[in-house]
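Try this one yourself first.
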């Protein structure tokens, strides 16, 4: 269960899907026999399959996680977007009364569902091809699965297993200073905008979007 104060809850499906597509590397946690199995795999979101979409990826056949899925193990895939440290010095209220402490802002989307494993070569090839097309799209000369020798691909398909997670529910948490007064929100956005790095710039934009009118 995620600690989720109402002012940090993000329930807009399009917003959650956009985060997953922009940050596709999932921290995937599967519960099995009292243990939590944790893996990090890139996942593709097929928003048109199922009520809440379906996540698609693959793991090495040597990874034991896929073998426990037949038991219907619950799982959650966590996707993390922009995050940044927030200094209390950016709050005007801190300079007025001193009552402020540091915090950390972040945006996350959690996809809950019961995963399934697929071993057949045709299914695995389809997953690999779709993932490749998505992640090669920005290249000047996109690599294709067919660029590699057919016998080489055939061998590789035997050592990976496709994973699909029909999403049962999404939990979105946008902790972007919504709990602060508007002046403090403005201060955080300005403070982050003045920091180096893409993460701070992205978080500044998220804070700016949620500033109280």
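Now uncover the answer:
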């Amino acid at each position: 269960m995620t600690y989720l104060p109402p002012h940090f809850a993000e329930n807009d499906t399009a917003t959650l899907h956009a985060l997953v597509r922009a940050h596709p590397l999932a921290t995937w946690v599967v519960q099995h026999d009292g243990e939590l199995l944790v893996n990090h795999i890139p996942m593709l979101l097929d928003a048109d399959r199922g009520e809440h979409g379906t996540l698609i990826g693959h793991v090495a056949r040597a990874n034991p996680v896929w073998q426990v899925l037949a038991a219907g193990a619950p799982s959650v895939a966590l996707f993390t977007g922009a995050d940044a440290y927030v200094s209390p010095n950016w709050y005007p209220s801190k300079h007025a009364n001193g009552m402020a402490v540091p915090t950390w802002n972040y945006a996350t989307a959690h996809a809950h569902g019961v995963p399934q494993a697929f071993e057949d070569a045709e299914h695995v090839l389809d997953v690999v091809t779709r993932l490749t097309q998505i992640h090669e799209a920005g290249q000047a000369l996109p690599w294709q699965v067919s660029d590699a020798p057919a016998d080489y691909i055939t061998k590789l398909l035997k050592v990976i297993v496709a994973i699909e997670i029909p999403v049962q529910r999404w939990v979105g948490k946008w902790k972007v200073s919504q709990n602060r007064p508007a002046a403090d929100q403005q201060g955080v956005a300005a403070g982050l905008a003045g920091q180096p790095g893409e993460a701070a710039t992205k978080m500044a934009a998220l804070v700016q979007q949620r500033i109280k009118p």
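Discussion: The longest strand covers residues 160-175. The longest helix spans residues 121-136.
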